[in-house]
UniProtKB/TrEMBL annotation:
Record domain ABC transporter: where: 4-229
Originating organism: Pediococcus stilesii
Protein name: Multidrug ABC transporter ATPase
GO molecular function, one term: ATP hydrolysis activity
Domain of life of the native organism: Bacteria
Keywords for this protein: ATP-binding, Nucleotide-binding
Gene3D superfamilies with a match to the protein in the record: P-loop containing nucleotide triphosphate hydrolases
InterPro entries according to UniProt: AAA+_ATPase, ABC_transporter-like_ATP-bd, ABC_transporter-like_CS, P-loop_NTPase
Length: 297
């Protein structure tokens, strides 16, 4: 297994350019988050990577295989936003059809997937009668049946409750550890990206940021320090020239601070004002807003 390499990828629809000159290099085994506001080009890129649509310009290669060939396509498993399974067939029938597409010689891998995703109790039920969480687990198993090199998850947990999302992600990360599988994720739930190895942020068809999660946190995540004090106005007056991002709300002063050391220094210097305090570090939602100026939704 090797890298997925994208060079100069562009997709045009008459007067609209949906994706503009995108370069990406995704290493074997990485967990990749592809983020952007609605209409930024994420789904168009996913559709080009998986061979559903052809790029106007640029190249895509995986282990020397070009997009569109059978050898290339079988390296991918895709969980689409909308299911591609038959609602009138049972879970077992749907998975049997999918298994037949790959002429698999053994059911050992499928049996592991059924256990991992707890599908055995619902194998005889019609897919269309399942709950949203059950259908999504079946969708993921369908995508994994042929043991793909790369699993693409296009907003896989939209509409699911937080407990179901956690269960699904726990299993996916276990499978990654066992197989070394690469995962490419688009999502509206940015907490799902916290374990990503690398992040691409898109806007207006371009990649505006590409970096490791660790570096994104270092560069863009700041601390929100909330001070409870009976002398809020005095504290604001004393620190307003030093800290540009500061606000006063009743008996609270809220300050944005760059580092843990600065937080410690602030608490030590102004302890005479402090009745209580709370400190929070920016999460991916705040980092995304900083990068794009837009909410992910």
């Amino acid at each position: 297994m090797g890298s997925l390499v994208v060079s100069g990828l562009t997709k045009k629809y008459k007067t609209l350019t949906a994706v503009k000159n995108v370069d990406m290099s995704i290493l074997e085994g990485q967990f990749i988050a592809l983020l952007g506001p609605n209409g930024s080009g994420k789904t168009t890129i996913i559709n080009m990577l998986t061979g559903l649509i052809q790029p106007t310009e640029g190249t895509i290669q995986l282990d020397g295989q070009k997009v569109g060939t059978y050898e290339y396509r079988k390296k991918f498993g895709v969980v689409f936003q909308n299911s591609v399974l038959d609602s009138d067939l049972t879970v077992e029938q749907n998975l049997k059809i999918r298994t037949g597409m790959y002429s698999l010689k053994s059911n050992a891998w499928l049996n592991k997937l059924l256990d991992w995703f707890s599908l055995r109790p619902i194998l005889k039920q019609k897919y269309g009668l399942l709950s949203g969480g059950q259908r999504r687990r079946v969708d993921i198993v369908r995508a994994l049946i042929h043991k793909p090199q790369i699993l693409v998850l296009d907003e896989p947990s939209t509409g699911l409750d937080i407990q179901t999302r956690k269960v699904i992600w726990k299993v996916i990360h276990e499978i990654r550890e066992v197989t070394g599988m690469t995962v490419i994720l688009t999502t509206h739930y940015l907490e799902e990206t916290e374990q990503a190895d690398f992040v691409f942020v898109m806007d207006h068809g371009r990649i505006i940021v590409k970096d490791s999660m660790e570096e994104l946190r270092k560069k863009y995540a700041k601390y929100r320090l909330t001070i409870t004090t009976n002398e809020a106005s005095k504290l604001v007056e004393e620190v307003k020239d030093t800290y540009l991002s500061i606000s006063e709300e009743y008996n609270h002063v809220i300050i944005q601070i760059d580092s843990t050391q600065e937080v410690i220094n602030f608490l030590s210097t102004y302890r005479r004002y402090i009745e209580d305090f709370e400190c929070e570090k920016d999460d991916m939602n705040t980092i995304f807003l900083t990068l794009t100026g837009k909410d992910i939704r």
